[in-house]
């Protein structure tokens, strides 16, 4: 049980129940959003119309939004305490959701990562929470194929992982521009709409698609990527955008990624921002890193391990496709009769 779990780098804390959420698939078909208590026991579940991906938590309120897996057409807003439906968000007909989004610092706006598939560009759709999630407009994401976007700790700047891969709902899982794809991280002031900077990978890693992001205590943005090139080539699958504006791939740590099978599925920072976890469901492995020294502190092995989130005690929890919730030692601290989807969130 989580409450009794002594993490490898911290002790369990007493206090209010900490809840976690994730999308999941039922054994007989169908999809769910599930809320969990700090013991990993189910608090509530709510049906999802399609397969879920990630969720956005309104930290100063009671809403949590579950996004459909790309190419999604809807998002479902639930009450985080009861699991009851609050609203359904339908994007414009010429947009598809990319599975991620975030709330503004004051909780009044929801930013949804969207694909403008006809124009081959990414956008952040802006939805007004106070007006039943009415769509107000959009901001350019700064690239093609945006995936995860996060609001940085200052509350005004968003970082967007533009994966560089063009897709179209008529060809749901096809990648349409691999010879010319170009990935980047773009920084946007969400209050003014100003695009502040765009950081691209070098031509040497043109087929590396940046997908997932997390912010560390030092204000660095760590990213995880997926490689679309030669399957025999080993490439670094993670890196960071430093405070001085330099994009760094972890080339010196290449050996850490040989088990990842060219795929990072999720990235998370610990509650104190000192550690970062990267997961690979294809490789069946997760690694926990010291964010400052870039050394691997621990490794967790489990088939289809992908979801990762910071626990209340300073450690990480992981989810897999067998319905398990795992601690840093790889032990199952809870089991469910579902297959957890790619991401999990702390409320």
Rg from Cα: 19 Å
- Percentage of β-strand residues: over 45%
Helix content: under 10%
The main sheet orders its strands as 3-2-1-28
Give the averaged pLDDT, no decimals. 92
Q: Classify the secondary structure makeup into a structural class.
A: mainly beta
Pattern of helices and strands: EEEEEEEEEEEEEEEEEEEEEEEEEEEE
DSSP summary: helix tally: 0
Distance N to C terminus: 18 Å
Given as residue ranges, the uncertain stretches (5+ residues, pLDDT < 50) are 1-16
Report the principal-axis shape.
globular
How many strands in all? 28
Please describe the biggest sheet, giving its number of strands, its sense, and whether it closes into a barrel.
Answer: 4 strands, antiparallel
Could you name the key traits of this structure?
disordered N terminus, mainly beta, 347 residues, single chain, four-stranded antiparallel β-sheet
